[in-house]
Write a structure and sequence with these properties.
The chain is mostly helical. 69% of the residues lie in helices and 0% in strands. The protein has 5 helices and no strands. The chain is globular, with a radius of gyration of 15 Å. The mean pLDDT is 91.
């Protein structure tokens, strides 16, 4: 199952020639550094907005952070809908999330 948010961000990646992976992979260091900068910027904007207590900027910051999170998942080829569902199982106390097994089912060959 796909997520409508992920589909929108994937469309952005395709339009702007950003990486898209259909299987779990670790991108090159340049791409990792770029995503870290994006995540840091988005998180800093959100935190600043929260401290200023400005609802509009908090909403924008949350959207920016989610866009960046979904973009990172797309670059890494992580199926976010399934991964989030597994994480939710753990958060609800229904057992540990089986994320390693999930990634392997989607083609991941890594060890960690």
């Amino acid at each position: 199952m796909t997520d409508p948010y992920v589909e929108k961000v994937q469309a952005f990646h395709c339009k702007h020639i950003r990486p898209v992976s259909n299987v779990p992979v670790v991108p090159d260091d340049r791409e990792i550094d770029k995503q870290i900068r994006y995540m840091h910027t988005a998180m800093a904007e959100l935190c600043f907005a929260m401290k200023e207590d400005k609802m509009l900027n908090v909403a924008r910051g949350l959207a920016h952070l989610l866009y960046t999170v979904f973009g990172t998942a797309i670059i890494y080829g992580i199926p976010m809908h399934s991964t989030f569902s597994e994480w939710h199982i753990g958060e609800m106390g229904e057992g540990p999330p089986q994320i390693k097994e999930l990634l392997k089912r989607h083609g991941w060959k890594g060890r960690n």
